[in-house]
Amino acid sequence: MTTLTPLTPPTARLRGRLALFNPTIARITTRALFGQRRFLLLLPLPVLVVGLAVLTDASGVHPREWVDAVVLDLGLTVVLPVLALIIGTGVLGTEIDDGTLAHVLAKPLPRREIILSKLVVAVSVTTVTTGVPLALTGFLAGSPSLALALVIGSLVGALAYCALFAALSLLTRRPVLIGLAYILIWESLLQNILDGTRVLSIYQYVLTVVDRVANSTLVSANLSLAVALAMTFIFTVGFTLLAIDRLRSFAVVGETS
Amino acid sequence: MSTLTVPAGSTGGSLGSPAPDAPKAPGTGGLVELRGVSKWYGNVVAVNDITMTLGPGVTGLLGPNGAGKTTVLHMMAGFLPPSRGEVLIGGEPAWRNPFVYSGLGIVVEREAVHGFLSGWDFVLASAKLHRLPNPEAAARRAIELVDMVEPMHRRMGTYSKGMRQRMRVAAALVHDPAVLLLDEPFNGMDPRQRLHMMELLHAMGEAGRTVLFSSHILEEVEQVSGTVQVIVAGRLAASGDFRTIRRLMTHRPHVFTIRSSDDRRLAVALMGRASVAGIDIDPQGGLTVRASDYGTFTRELPKIALAEQIRVQRLVPADESLESVFSYLVGA
């Protein structure tokens, strides 16, 4: 009843490829991400930023005052990292939790290809969901250059944050908790107390990039652009390589273990 | 492989079937080898010094729950590193080597799938991730093999456990692997699905594929495979032909509790039989009979009761659990 064709091992063909991006993985990852309840629950956050900006602007407050509170304090220190946390752990951590990652792991794909495909999805979704509403606030403040700067800043932040949180998904069983601790304790609390931690804070890189691109009096940063870009590069590449290496040695546990 | 090897005592060493150390000729993609493989987690030893070689055909990996079957399968699947020893698929290490998957298909026990995908999407994605030249045709063929063509465009979230299981099997054999590993594949299947899956595994074995499936149910292994590897408490307890193991199991000593209209008279009659090794009389009523031979005793009891005109009200095997069967095998 069953006919089976002779074996044709495609190993040689697979080995020679320079694998960087896999559309099948990206498509399934995106569909899974948008199907997650906790992701959909976070979508009101960007709406909140725009709403607050519209309200304060309409009530006659000068952009000099509300940009700091709404765009920087809420948009860049809360919305961007929290969305990146949910999305960055969502593209990998949830598949680890529910066991569906085993399907992808049991394929003859370089682990680099899996991580990079998932990061492309995470960075794109994070950049769009934070960059677009933040750009709207930039236009509202009457500064198209600030709008552009916020989109670029969102991309820079999305790169570093998503790489960090994807690596966390593979390093710990509680990536969201540890990611939140990084955002709340390291970036928000310690920054105000210890100046030295600034050079190790993704928020500071984003702020620096936004400041230099916008060239506006509305934003001021503490780092030099060169340091900010170099550190973003180190964070992004370093945590991506770490994630790839962890996935190579990823142990799939059974239901009972 | 037709002889049964049961290690004496629990010492390591020459367990199980002989493992040929001969180097493999090219084209032996279907060979699965474990060489002195152990796996421990902290102080807990999950798998203890297992050496086995699996070739083409269907092999059952039999053992009670918690014996280490999943750990062994996951090491073969490259999902876990062995703490000691080597796991080779077609001569290549399974761990940290994603390219072994081009000749290897895996169906894990944990049945997680993306519920939003249709069965067709799921199997097609698997074919594309294997970079097959014609993924649509390969997906179609795999879905036909598991008899899931009719519901293949439904979301997998709407499938029954058995249907999801078959789609996962389809995804695992979409690239026609030389080696197929399945962890408890018959769980959640109805009898018809079970029969169909057994036929499919048989056909793959006949076609020269190496098929290994785990089970804790003797009858499943008996129906699908002639060759069996028995794992108890992380050790390879027995390996070889299933019929030999089955015979050992049916002829093992056995304990029954019996209630009858006249326990003492029945005890006297039974004591004269060779198939009975000992009898205890419970003061509260009832007998505990240690039969030396399961088959003979169960055939003789009704005849004796009839001849003595004693009514047997209850006959319960006291020791029928699979664990006791396995521990007997290990102790033999």
CATH class of the largest domain in chain B, named Alpha Beta
Biggest interface, chains and residues, is: A-B, 39 and 48 residues
- Give a count of the beta strands of chain B, DSSP E runs of length 2 or more: 14
CATH superfamily membership of the largest domain in chain B, which one?
Answer: P-loop containing nucleotide triphosphate hydrolases
What is the number of helices of chain B?
10
Task: State the end-to-end distance of chain B.
Answer: 19 Å
Largest sheet of chain B: 6 strands, mixed
Approximate strand percentage of chain A? under 5%
- Order of helix and strand elements from N to C terminus of chain A: HHHHHHHHHHHH
Q: What proportion of the residues of chain A is helical, as a percent range?
A: over 70%
Architecture of the largest domain in chain B, CATH level 2? 3-Layer(aba) Sandwich
> What does the largest sheet of chain A look like?
none
Q: According to CATH, what is the topology of the largest domain in chain B?
A: Rossmann fold
Radius of gyration of chain B: 24 Å
Query: Cα distance, first to last residue of chain A?
Result: 38 Å
Strand content of chain B: 25-35%
